[in-house]
Design goal:
The protein has one domain. It is about 30% helix and about 20% strand. It contains 8 helices and 11 strands. The protein has helices spanning about 20-25, 55-60, 75-85, 175-180, 230-245, 265-290, 295-310, 315-330; strands at about 5-10, 30-35, 50, 90-95, 95-100, 115-120, 155, 160-170, 195, 210, 250-260. The radius of gyration is 19 Å and the shape is globular. About 45% of the residues are buried.
Length: about 325
């Protein structure tokens, strides 16, 4: 049985890395490692819940048959498993993000007062934590320069936080263009937290992210786009869903160090090209679509709208419906 109601979901094809084992030492979290067709081949550590392909299938989720193999979207099965165990908080990270002492501490999803930023359509949150010019993966490239000096409206307000996106030091989540043309370590400064007001987007990822139970319906990772794009697309869709419920996206200081696995940066770039070209079109579709119903039903509606605009495939809509069916069944305790 899981040792905690707080779940950390990681997907990997490798045996537990040093980082994964460091999370496993945290008795206040249940670590779920989701395998894939490539591995890992056997398992290993009683402190970790390991979901290999056979066990994933045995869980009986409708979504399993629509989940691509050897893809980051395999994490969706881990989310559903955590839901089936009654997870109060779901966190996610990767096997090369090493937790710092502050990781996974007190998570306040309903702060009485918090710095709140409103800045037009896009805001580069990284500029609040470093004086270096750095932008998060998925930030529209045409907005990078204008975001340097864009005026912001800052207030202090109470909030209902859907997700806390905390940062990563050393090799944070930036795109291949940044790494190819600038590179070098990035160390974020400051400990303040902030939230974005409704209507202001910033991409958020799946590498050091903590989800409020009220936002679980938006966890779904699309599986028909590249692995360098899927969590970014998920993040833009999720922000639209959050706003409908009065929820906000929050950012916090670096609580992990990324000891990045080896990557071919030109391959990363190739996998990000669709993201660079289409992310602004995605936002336009989201802004033009006003779904009704529950957050899960709205999730399906938004992916249908994206498919109608040629931004995702019909197969993605089918997968979204299957995932939502599993989510709804688990949420209702059926």
């Amino acid at each position: 049985m899981p040792s905690s109601s707080r779940f950390l979901v990681i997907t990997s094809i490798n045996p537990p890395t040093e980082a994964v084992l460091a999370y496993a030492e945290r008795s206040d979290w249940t670590v779920v490692l989701v395998g894939d067709r490539k591995g890992p081949a056997g398992f290993i550590d009683d402190r970790i819940v390991f979901l290999d392909m056979r066990r994933q299938k045995s869980l009986g989720f409708e979504y399993f048959d629509h989940c691509p193999e050897n893809h980051y979207a395999r994490k969706n099965v881990g989310y559903l498993y955590a839901l089936s165990c009654g997870a109060e908080v779901i966190a996610e990270t990767d096997d090369d993000n090493f937790p710092l002492a502050e990781w996974g501490g007190v998570l306040d999803f309903a702060p009485a007062e918090l710095r709140t930023i409103e800045d037009g359509r896009y805001f580069n949150v990284y500029r609040e934590y470093t004086e270096s010019e750095v932008w998060p993966r998925g930030f529209p490239l045409r907005e990078v320069i204008s975001a340097r000096t864009a005026p912001t409206r800052v207030t202090r307000e109470p909030a209902r936080v859907a997700v806390w996106q905390e940062l990563a030091d050393d090799d944070p989540d930036v795109d291949a263009i940044f790494r190819l043309t600038r590179g070098g370590k990035v160390c974020f400064k400051g400990t303040d937290r902030l939230i974005l007001q409704r209507g202001t987007y910033c991409p958020f990822n799946s590498q050091n992210t903590f989800w409020n139970r009220q936002a679980y319906a938006a966890l779904f990772l699309p599986g028909t786009v590249s692995m360098r794009y899927c969590d970014i697309l998920r993040g833009y869709v999720a922000q639209k869903l959050f706003w409908r419920e009065g929820l906000r996206l929050g950012f916090g200081p670096a609580t992990v160090r990324q000891l990045r696995n080896q990557h071919d940066l030109m391959r990363d770039f190739a996998e990000e090209v669709t993201m660079y070209r289409e992310v602004e079109s995605v936002v336009k579709v989201l802004e033009a679509t006003e779904p009704g119903g529950t957050m899960g039903e709205s999730l399906v509606t938004l992916y249908q709208a994206l498919a109608s605009s040629g931004l995702v495939s019909e197969a993605e809509v089918t997968a979204t419906k299957a995932w939502h069916a599993d989510f709804r069944r688990l949420a209702l305790g059926l």
